[in-house]
Each structure stands twice: as structure tokens, then as C-alpha cells.
Design brief:
The protein has 72 residues and is mostly beta strands. It is built from no helices and eleven strands. A four-stranded parallel sheet has the order 1-4-7-10, with no helix packed on it. The radius of gyration is 10 Å and the shape is globular. The two termini are 19 Å apart.
């Protein structure tokens, strides 16, 4: 984990690259969050890749869900 992780659950083998921000999220195993990506209230299944510079935000009562193996 090289980025910022706040109030989140991070499973094993997750990579959070430099300058990425993960706030109030659940990130399941094998996922990658690339540089300068920003996530808020997101639930990610296994093996998801969030590309560089992407920004995703849900809200606490309705989080964004990303299915297994997706590339965003």
C-alpha cells in the first residue's frame, strides 16, 4: 500500500499505488488501484483493476459495486 487508505477493509494481495486514495471502501483480494485513482464508498469484488486517474464515488447508503474481474 503506497497510497492513502481510510476507514476501509483491504483484503490480502491488494495493491494501492502511489497517490491513490481509498476511503470508506471494501477491496477484495487480488485487486489493483492504480496511481491517482480516488475511491469513496466502493465495494470491489476479487481481481478488479481501477486504472490510473479514475474516480468512483457512491454514498454510505448506496455504495458503488464493481463485479469480479472488472477493469474500470
Amino acid at each position: 500500500i503506497e497510497g492513502i487508505v481510510r476507514r476501509s477493509i483491504i483484503f490480502r494481495d491488494v495493491k494501492v499505488e502511489r497517490d491513490a486514495v481509498v476511503d470508506n471502501c471494501i477491496v477484495m483480494q487480488g485487486s489493483v488501484i492504480c496511481e491517482k485513482a480516488a475511491l469513496g464508498a466502493v465495494i470491489m469484488d476479487k481481481d478488479v483493476v481501477i486504472r490510473e486517474g479514475r474516480s468512483l464515488a457512491g454514498c454510505e447508503s448506496y455504495p458503488v459495486f464493481i463485479s469480479k474481474g472488472s477493469v474500470v
